Amino acid sequence: MEILYLDNAATSFPKPDTVMAAMIAYQQNIGANPGRSGHGRSVEAGRIVFETREALARLFHIEDPLRIALTKNATESLNIVLQGGLKPGDSVITSGMEHNSVMRPLRFLEGRGVELSVVPCSPRGELEPDDVRKALRKNTRMVVLTHASNVTGTILPVEAVGALLRDRPEVLFCVDAAQTAGALPIDVEKMRIDLLAFTGHKSLFGPQGTGGLYIREGLENKISPLMMGGTGSRSEFEQQPVFMPDRYESGTPNTIGIAGLGAGVSFVLEQTVGTVRDQEERLISRFLSGLRDLRDDVIVYGPQDASRQTAVVSFNIRDVSASDAASYFEDNRGILCRPGLHCAPSAHRTIGTFPRGTIRFSFGFFNTQRDVDDACAALRELVKRKGNHRS
Amino acid sequence: MTTHNDCVVLVESVSHALGAEKIIKGAGINCKLIHVPRHLSSDCGICLRFRADDRERVEALLQGKLHFFDIKLL
Ligand SMILES: Cc1ncc(COP(=O)(O)O)c(C=O)c1O
Asked: Residue with the nearest Cα to atom 10 of ligand 1?
């Protein structure tokens, strides 16, 4: 049986060949520790890391590539921002569609005296920008928002929220772009983003263990690093450097992963985000229309409008648990998907599927219309079987 | 006479050195990454060597674009 991988929202598969080639080339021909010496191989390794930063800067419209710290994933980036940037007495606003990589640090900080306001979203996961404005307090220090939900694919109005925060320059705007970096256009200036947390292994096509954090100029003085240690710079001092990106990059980096990430981002830049988005929109539109034909048996969550969501759809089949459906899809159709709560209990409460969860199919740039049709056929088959059982 | 001498740009980190190299080479000026000479800094990092003739241009190119500590004669 052929495998149909529909779990791209967890991590993308496959990766472009150039990603594996870049990783092998680094390890075979370079292999040295970047930024730790002036010898040729070390400089070459440093160059790979630098070029990855440059590609990311181009993608997100960041002027200075050194404003990007490379991390191991979006979770680390979000923890740096939240744990390093919020203190007791500060107030922080977030949405009802967040991933646990935002909610868990925030709930932890709430226990330490940070005031947390969770702005509710509609049952489709939509956020009204004006509700964010209404939640602003005098002591609001930060607004943290996912760019798109990993459960329903709902795209949140990041640009509109950024615009309404223009009158409040002291409020930091942090965006979790785990689901959208590489898949939707992101412009930190146009969207007034101060802090952009992204992961490398989804739509940027890097390997797992890669990610990053953009920090607007000057904010490195206000956000403490989570980890301190050797950076290869300022070795004469026993204090952590205050400058970017070294402040947040202690310890030997994942250079082989960063080599792969650089190739992945270059792939996205060559294809262009617009092309990626068009392809994914076509796929999701076709899948949504297939789901509409099954509306008596399949409950679909989220916007159900390809132009307002990423290539992610959550649904449930009447009288079948999400995990049974997922097992059925894998055992009978080779479809790999993700049932359950997707690390986002808050989002599932918003859409009314807590604690039952949903089945999530998430497509990627390398999927074809035929994959979508196979997914629809699998769904039809399961629905039909269930009907036979009942009668 | 400094015309036959070289200068170096001293920077915070290898990332900065690579950034500076890009800017300077981008303007068509020759430069090379080298180990920081011991007499200039106790740090073990790298710096960027270029011809002293280009000093003013290099300084102007980097100013406001990339943070550097100093430009020194070798
Ligand atoms: C919306 C969202 N935020 C954050 C994350 C965390 O990303 P990572 O696991 O790469 O840290 C994910 C994915 O797992 C996500 O979908």
From this structure: A73
User: Taking CB atoms and an 8 Å limit, are B15 and A243 in contact across chains?
Assistant: no
Please write the tens of the pLDDT for every residue from A320-352: 999 999 999 999 999 999 999 999 999 999 999
| Number of CB pairs, chain A paired with chain B, less than 8 A apart | 65
CB distance A346 to A264 below 8 Å: no
The model's pTM: 0.94
CATH of A4-13+272-390, one of 3.40.50.300, 3.30.750.24, 3.90.1150.10, 3.90.180.10: 3.90.1150.10
- ipTM metric: 0.80
What residues have CB less than 8 Å from A207, skipping those under 6 apart?
A15, A19, A23, A200, A201, A256, A257, A260, A261
A304 lines ligand 1 (CB under 6 A): no
Distances (CA, A) of B6 to A375, B51, B55: 66, 4, 9
Interface of B with A (CB under 8 A): 12-19, 22, 33-36, 42-46, 66-67
Whether residue A80 contacts residue A223, with contact meaning beta carbons closer than 8 Å, is answered with yes
**Beta bridge mates, A313:** A361
Domain with CATH 3.40.640.10 in chain A: 17-271
Q: Which CATH number is correct for B3-73, 3.40.50.1100, 3.30.70.790, 3.40.1170.20, 2.60.120.10?
A: 3.30.70.790
